[in-house]
Amino acid sequence: MKFKKISPSQHFESDWACTNITEESCKKGSLITENYLITSGREKIPINLENLGQRGLILNREVSSNHAWPLESVKSFLEDESVANLDELYKAIRHKMQSLIIFEDERLFDLITCWIIGTYFHRLMPAFPYLHFQGNAGCGKTKVLSIIAQLAFRAEHCINSSAAATTRLIHKNHSTCCIDEVEHLKRGEDNQTLVSMFNSGYKYGAVIKKCETINKSIQIVEFDAYSPKVFGGIGAIHSVLTTRCIPIIMPPIKVIERSILHTEVDFNDKSWDEIRGHLYHLMLLNFKEVRQTYKELDLPIDNLNPRDWELWRPIFTIAKSLRGSVVEENLIALMQDIKQLKDSNNDDKEFQVALLECLLELIEKYPEDKGIFPVQVIENYLCSQSGREEFRFMQDRKSNRWIGFNLKRLGVITQNAQPIRIMGETKRCFTLNRDLIDKRLDALAPKTEESVTKDDLVF
């Protein structure tokens, strides 16, 4: 008999799908843990050699306990013949986020909602994008990660997790990893595994190999690296990882929005369980439609390179499945804006260094302005440097929005451009902080190689 290898956490075949759950009970004073497969055919199969063998199935990895799918919702799924409603679920997730977080660009609610839903289908797709939230302290990055950790597939908010723990979490559970303060991740020996996993783990089939001691002998073991991941941090991340991410810049919270800022994420709120339960229903009942939509999806715009389409395609797959909605239109516009801003920099180190050097020159040239410059003045000064290789792209720019985007990404401004009266006129101005610029420049281009050690290299 030929056996089919399956991954218990999230597995899809042409005509069926499954995930695993864990039930706990107390017998004779001992805690008994039992794992089951729940299939799209509404079957509950005990995970043991006999039951799996009768169905021609074998696990391709060790089963891990799963309490993310509430048991009441599991029972409802097994007993009820109703179908999952993607549109209602989409609205519920978006509404929940809007009650807890503010985005200057409301299209980000569409992006994140589609991304969360997509995590439940990521193993249907050859690649799945990372999200990277970047902004200064207090802008809400950690809260966004906390919200995603409540809703995304098997999500874990990883705080100071070891490389070994994160590696096994991804391999066994295909967990969505929410990683805060990612710029603090160093290239130390212990984190080389994480570096490799993050760089390769946006693609299905990506594995990392490690030497493990098994039965007193050293053996090479493969770990599945593919899973959804979301990063939060103040500074920029390594250029390789950037190409796997959809970047999201988070500006400072405005004073009028402080009421939502102080609304804490209530982890005991039962609505998290309710939404998550419906997401599992959706995964097992709608996977065929999602797979077909992914295959038939056309490019939303013409000038999209293969890597960008690879990242955005899962997002548009979910958006396309929504009925009578403007979500797809919003995402096309948002993708074009992000692409335009990303193309202006693409996290290029030489460009960042050149930009910081020009900002220092501007501050030194006009010390009486105390670092306060209209956006147009900054743009004009940079245009005067268009002879430099790093700034040649400016000759074709039709908007100066890229300036604020890059200043935020570099972490050298603490707020958005503010209206300030200068010589009788109100102009949008940035306040450039020389200390922040010096620190970022020193991090990107240290003055002496001798002062740099392996642990100083920012990932």
Would you kindly provide a written description of the structure presented here, covering whatever features stand out?
- This protein has 459 residues and is an alpha/beta fold.
- It has three domains: 4-67, no CATH class; 86-343, Rossmann fold, CATH 3.40.50; 349-456, Arc Repressor Mutant, subunit A (Orthogonal Bundle).
- Helix content is 41%, strand content 18%.
- The protein is built from 16 helices and 16 strands.
- It has a five-stranded parallel beta sheet with strand order 8-9-12-7-13, with helices on both faces.
- A hairpin with a 2-residue loop joins strand 15 and strand 16 (425-431).
- Helix 3 crosses helix 10 (270-296), helix 4 (107-118) crosses helix 11 (306-321) and helix 6 packs parallel to helix 7.
- The chain is elongated, with a radius of gyration of 24 Å.
- Residues 447-459 have low confidence and may be disordered.
* Known CATH architecture of the largest domain: 3-Layer(aba) Sandwich
Radius of gyration of CA atoms, rounded to a whole number: 24 Å
Summing up helix and strand content along with how strands pair, one would put the structural category as alpha/beta
User: Strand order, biggest sheet?
Assistant: 8-9-12-7-13
DSSP strand content: 15-25%
Look up the CATH topology of the largest domain. Rossmann fold
- Give the CATH class of the largest domain: Alpha Beta
Given as residue ranges, the uncertain stretches (5+ residues, pLDDT < 50) are: 447-459
Using the alpha-carbon principal axes, give the shape.
elongated
Major β-sheet annotation: 5 strands, parallel
CATH superfamily of the largest domain: P-loop containing nucleotide triphosphate hydrolases
